[in-house]
Amino acid sequence: MFMSLKEYGPGLEGVIAAETELSFLDTEKEKIVIRGYDLIELSKTNDYLDIVHLLLEGELPKEKEKEKTVEKLKENYDLPMEIFSIMKLLPKNTHPMDGLRTGLSALAGYDTDIENRHLDINKERGYRLLGQLPTVTVNAHRILNGKEAILPNPLLTYSANFLYMITGEVPEDWQTEIFDRSLLLYSEHEMPNSTFAARVIASTNSDMYGALTGAVASLKGHLHGGANEAVMYMLNDASTVADFEEQLYQKLVKKEKVMGFGHRVYMKKMDPRALIMKESLKQLSEKDGDFLLLEMCEAGEKVMREEKGLYPNLDYYAAPVYWKLGIPIELYTPIFFSARTVGLAAHVVEQHSNNRLFRPRVRYIGKDY
Ligand SMILES: CC(=O)SCCNC(=O)CCNC(=O)[C@H](O)C(C)(C)COP(=O)(O)OP(=O)(O)OC[C@H]1O[C@@H](n2cnc3c(N)ncnc32)[C@H](O)[C@@H]1OP(=O)(O)O
Ligand SMILES: O=C([O-])CC(=O)C(=O)O
Predict the structure, then answer these.
(1) What is the ipTM of this complex?
(2) Which is it for strands 23-26 and 37-38: parallel, antiparallel or unpaired?
(3) What is the pLDDT of residues 314-366, one digit of tens each?
(4) In whole angstroms, what is the distance from residue 214 CA to residue 101 CA?
């Protein structure tokens, strides 16, 4: 079937770019569908590693399968030490997201079977990257800040270890639970720009490392994953609720985009993931007795709803949650990427399993010829 070359919407809005069994944003039923399950419901009963299994294997894990997933990820924690040496060569003003991009890209050279696109090999590659990515992510930040690399602690759960490497302290169970839920919410989201980028790259039969490296670059942008860091800088620029409201009004007067609001798919409703993350912020505020960030965020929601009819996306509430967990701001987007690695790997596996090269056309608006 061939579409008319005249049909064009800037930003490919509404265009169906791929068929997938992985996920779908059903805006009518208000569900984020992940292989037939509702992600929001899963966030109440399941953890990140369940979603990892669901995405890569097609179903939720039984107890024994879960144990196997846990072990498989731990077996893959080891990282070639040269990755740290490469990071040490980067200029110190490199953003950790670029450090992560470089580290991930360098891992390609250590894959001795890199040209093999067989389904099982590709899935194993996905698990290996999931095992390695938290260490790459955290150390990109540590090394660029002149600190020694930190190694994973295999005695901890996947998410507890990730948080331990970030803060240097073994987290309490409730902290791990909140962090794990954030990873789950970030795990997969249909066809955002980064997933599209990964699938476009994979469609040339290029490898998973290249596809994911391209996705890091995409996710870094403020219109996408980079928004979570931008939200926290914005919140930190205000010291009272009134300050924050004023900041937002000023941005709107100047016709600036307010980070953490709006979404191509949920333009007229709140991102359902943001609601869950807001609950985590409430939980954290009750724990430390400090409600200022929550009050600022709620006031911001009201301003944006009344002035622009816009609602928060996941990044708006992820930012203050990560702040209260003691996570450095420059790690917010790299953590988003690390969590999304499973979704991206599953998309690359799917693309390689049933591939056709992406090669769209343009509407020519140049000089006459
Ligand atoms: C997890 C994620 O990656 S979620 C996305 C994270 N990104 C952000 O939070 C960045 C801020 N948000 C935005 O820039 C946008 O809402 C996007 C990029 C997410 C979606 O963009 P699009 O679907 O292309 O919408 P577009 O940018 O065309 O906006 C439509 C209208 O809403 C306005 N608008 C959209 N988002 C915002 C915003 N955050 N602040 C102010 N105005 C906005 C636009 O100015 C535009 O208004 P106009 O028609 O008067 O010019
Ligand atoms: O779906 C999108 O366009 C962006 C997003 O929310 C995500 O990647 O989680």
Answers:
(1) 0.98
(2) unpaired
(3) 999 999 999 999 999 999 999 999 999 999 999 999 999 999 999 999 999 99
(4) 8
What type of residue is 329?
A: I
pLDDT 10s digits, 197-224: 999 999 999 999 999 999 999 999 999 9
| pTM (whole model) above 0.95 | yes
Indicate whether 307 pLDDT > 60: yes
191, 261, 269, 340: which to mutate for ligand 1, most atoms within 8 A of CB? 261
**62's torsion region: left (phi>0), alpha (psi -120 to 50) or beta?**
beta
Report the number of secondary-structure helices (H) and strands (E) in the chain. Answer: 16, 3
Domain boundaries, the chain: 36-362
- CB burial of 127-163 (b: ≥16 within 10 Å; e: otherwise) equals bbbbbbbbbbbbbbbbbbeeeebebbeeebbbbbbbb
Angstrom distance (rounded) from CA 67 to CA 75: 12
- Write the residue with the smallest CA distance to atom 42 of ligand 1: 257
pLDDT at 7: 78
pLDDT of residue 224: 98
From 53, 141, 189, 263, active-site residue = 263
Residue 312 · residue 301 · CB < 8 Å: yes
Compute the mean pLDDT over every residue in the chain, rounded to the nearest whole number.
Answer: 96
Is 352 labeled as catalytic in the residue annotation?
A: no
Buried b (16+ CB within 10 A) or exposed e, 250-288: ebbeeeeebbbbbbebbeeebbbbbebbbbbbeebbeee
Active site residue 315: yes
φ, ψ (nearest 5 deg) of residue 13: -55, 130
Which CATH class for the 36-362 domain? Answer: mainly alpha
Q: Give, using CA atoms, the residue closest to atom 1 of ligand 2.
A: 192
CB-CB neighbours of 174 under 10 Å: 11
Residue 261 pairs with which residues in a beta bridge? 312
**C-beta 192 within 6 A of ligand 2:** yes
